[in-house]
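Please complete every field before forwarding. Incomplete forms are returned to the sender.

SECTION A: IDENTIFIERS
Entry label: holo-212
Bound molecule: S-adenosylmethionine
Molecule representation: SMILES string

SECTION B: INPUTS
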Amino acid sequence: MNYDRYIPALRFEWLSTLYDPVMLLMRESTFKRTLVEQANIKNGYRLLDVGCGTATLTILIKKAYPDTEVTGLDGDPKILGIARAKVAKEGLDIFLDTGMSFELPYPDSSFDRVVSSLVFHHLTTENKARTFKEIFRVLKPGGELHVADFGKPHNALMYLISLVFRHLEETRDNIDGLLPQMFQKAGFDRAEETARFMTIFGTLSLYRAIKA
Ligand SMILES: C[S@@+](CC[C@H](N)C(=O)[O-])C[C@H]1O[C@@H](n2cnc3c(N)ncnc32)[C@H](O)[C@@H]1O
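SECTION C: PREDICTED COMPLEX
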């Protein structure tokens, strides 16, 4: 098992309590709302948020679609503590599980939708590939993966920022625009970039990948 490169939400565990304020710099509500819209969620669906962190996206989905079963999973018990407090404050019925993205603790074909925001740039190339295979496994046939994460720079300013950020965490695959082909390699039928946003950390892309 490869746990040797685990990157917490803000790189260092002691910074985790600052995660939500920092996210305000990332146009968080704009791109997360767009991600939820593109996921085309229906009542009765079962959804998984991989690397849910403080559960902002998880909560957004449950509030927008109360008649869905929503689960958030994260490998960091400390950030899940923050998530649990937020979920309790909102009085929502959301499952929060501790687990690794590349060893999902769910049976095959469990979910209609898997969403994930700002997680894959934390994973080594090997763990990205393992994670995409796991997501493919737990999705039902016809299920969809919807992702927000750093992507290929889409203008000169984003390119300049990427020159710094490609050396941080595990962003290189993202910045080189490799995520869609990695989704397809894991078995997904159609994988595409659906939107791009400028952020102070570089281009933030949305993706959709479908399990045929
Ligand atoms: C930048 S935060 C994003 C949190 C949340 N999805 C959001 O958009 O605000 C990345 C999260 O991924 C989690 N994470 C990193 N590697 C993981 C892995 N292999 N399995 C599960 N969670 C992981 C971290 O603990 C952290 O909470």
